[in-house]
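To close the chapter, one final illustration. This time we ask the reader to focus less on the individual chains and more on the assembly as a whole: which components sit near each other, and how the overall shape emerges from the parts.
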Amino acid sequence: MNYGMGLLDALAEKFGVFPGISEKTAWKMVFHVLKMPKDIATNLANDIIQVSEKMKKCQVCRCFTETEICHICCDETRDKSMVCVIQNMKDMFAFERMGYKGVYHVLDGLLSPMNGIGPEDIGICELLARVENSVISEIIMAIGPTVEGDATTNYIFSLLKPLGITVTRLAYGLPVGSSLEYTDDVTLNAALEGRNEI
Amino acid sequence: MNYGMGLLDALAEKFGVFPGISEKTAWKMVFHVLKMPKDIATNLANDIIQVSEKMKKCQVCRCFTETEICHICCDETRDKSMVCVIQNMKDMFAFERMGYKGVYHVLDGLLSPMNGIGPEDIGICELLARVENSVISEIIMAIGPTVEGDATTNYIFSLLKPLGITVTRLAYGLPVGSSLEYTDDVTLNAALEGRNEI
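The assembled structure is written out below.
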């Protein structure tokens, strides 16, 4: 809603298009900017411009970075032969929190032929080139088990299999700490199929 | 949490200090900035700087505005003799949505002697000066019925009463459309005390 407040309306509208930001939260943010010291607001504005202008894709793993090669791909302590394929950079953070010590390949989402999104649109060609040009012992497919996720995983697997590389996927099963009583049938079935000897 | 992502971490941290923005939402916003066209990001950054630098308080009602006098106080169609006293600018929007046609006096929050916030800190002195220097027929106290809200309302009333001005306050009672069953005792008591003949 426009309150005839000029600049404030304009800023609220811009905050309002961010994902997960309601009109109410957008206005809270505008009032927060009003209360901010000017240098803090300037720093925020500069960061937005910098992120928008300076971030590019890492030439190895395709995550966003300020440099040609990201800090993860540059890190000598990481196992470069283990590549975790994820559908976007957000998923990288989950692995980083967990302390994963391999490297990544970040796709731009999932295959979606219905929407005209093919392998060349999401970075699968770059993954193939990477596999051919470097020493990789294992590709871990870490894409969520949705219809499009499975299609993407299977497609990548079909490309990598002829190259003789070990391709694994994350285990499906019961979330740790979950109750059997509330587990959905598909997950329970996956847990049963993937059962391990104790 | 810092992911060693440089600029991205810095921006996520800055978004994270906004009210109502969780770490997760802050990161969603960062990724949204990454996907934005550069000119949109620049406009957003400029708006933040403009809001931070150009907004000042209206010399009449103390709401934030780009001009000396805000568009509400300049509006010839509004009833300047009816002044609604509110505790911050957010509350103004509620009245604007409703179609209120008087003008406002915006306080900087509420009296709070425990925190050292006195009448001179929240703009009560300016309200008194305004009442003395202009033709005002009614002051509507529209401050929420909290302990500090009531203290502020009562304090302002005690100052205005000797000046012979009509001071009203918003009615307390049942919210329209509410169910008696779920109404709290204090509100029900207020509704009973303020009962009107049909």
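The first strand of chain B starts at residue 56 and ends at 57. The longest helix of chain B spans residues 38-54. With these observations in hand, you are ready for the problems at the end of the chapter.
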